[in-house]
User: What shape does this take?
Amino acid sequence: MSTVSADSEGTDAPAQAPAAPVIPYARLVLLAACLGLFMSFIEVTAAISTLRALQVDMGVAPADLSWVSSTYTLVVAACVLSGGALGERFGRRRVFLTGVVLLAAGSLVVASAHGFPQVLVGRGISGLGGALVLPTSLALITTTFFVDLPRMLRYISVWVAVSGVGLAVGPLLGGTLLEVSGWRAVYLVNTPLAVVTVLVTLRAVAESRVPGRPLDLAGQLWAVLGLSALVYGIAVGGRAGYGDPVVAGVLVVAVVALAALVRTELRAPLPMLDVRMMRNGRYAAALCVAAAALFVFVGVVFLEVLFLQRVQGVGPLGTGVRLLPAMLAFVAATAVAQRLAGRVRAGRLLAAGSSLTTVAALVLLLQRAGGAYPVTGIGLVLAGLGSGLVVAPSTAAAFEVVPGEKMSAASSAVTAFRQVGSVLATAVLGAVLAVRFLDVLPARLAGRRVPPQVADRVVEVARTGGSAKGRSAQPITDAVASAFTAGVHSALWVVAGASCAAALLAALLLARRPPADTT
Assistant: This one.
């Protein structure tokens, strides 16, 4: 594998350790990677803050509104594996820059949209850009600093912290722009960021690629088909029901395509995703914990945005402010994890962090429609602390069990698993929330003595996304808030289960010292 050039300072004295290599524009390389990552993650939560304003402006049905966020995540999930492979073949810097431009272009399409279809097209373009940026932004770091492993791991920690900043700042920034200008301004944020990112990348980042890297078109085809069908089936099934023939058929396609992906990659001489490495139980466990880490953190942010805005009636800006404890705790815990690297096994940090996020989900289960914020704040702090102790060390845990020449493949796999985890968070948890909400809503309406005819209409509105008069009446509002809270609680149980499973994996397979034959 060819890598970026680095000027090395050596010494002929045998008693001295070789000096750390000098890497030109090292901090600018990190800045470029972090700016690209920030652009891709801010697309996730900033868009959520625009949903109500966009719905009013364009008259979008509530059932269709979820596709504003789902279209982006669907395209990212479907194409993120291809993004890493394309970077290795055509050049990581080139593909990274292409992704940055697509992220900004898609946002401009949304900002200038005259109809809802144009919004979805723009979100799809941004999703394609995110799929190119997410794997290559980490690859810029690993290929530039692989000759200086301590600095590489330190910079990966910074890169990971930026993902948390992007997720948590999104609602705050979106809410501010909504109050100052309007929902279209939220989608203009990435334009100046893209300009800066492109200039920094062209100045500081050298091109790197894998000479002769095949495209693995079959693997990319199966990955796109399998992941997109999986996310689509889960998301739509939450509204239409998993017994729906179309939903069931799509999920069958997902299973078949993902099985074909594994078979194809096992046979490929240079696979896009090296599934052979996953025969190592410790490595597979590191990938699963990495996926669970972003599943949990993105899931908590996603659920709390919905709970605060739709149940407690908090505005977009207020929601962003209330999410700040999660961001600050995430950044602080990432810094702590960085300082502990080398002194505490990565697996132990993963087990501790996953245990904390399990507790966080259980604390957030105490939230009620009319409850006070401190419960939410404590849960968010614990979620941020736990996620910060997991996300960066999950990369180190993967590196611990692969030889040096496999580090690039390992970093690409960890990135892919993280992003699939983040995408599945909105799809799976949104589906769980919707199923539970629709299941308990009739009983909650009946409990508040809403007339049966009105109750039937409210349930129909919730199921199909139509419109109905009188739904703002207090008994109906209380019933809907109570049912929605029940849906959020069910989704939080899923978060707790995923965190607990990750903690067990880390404790059993990663916290202990590896056998002597592993690296």
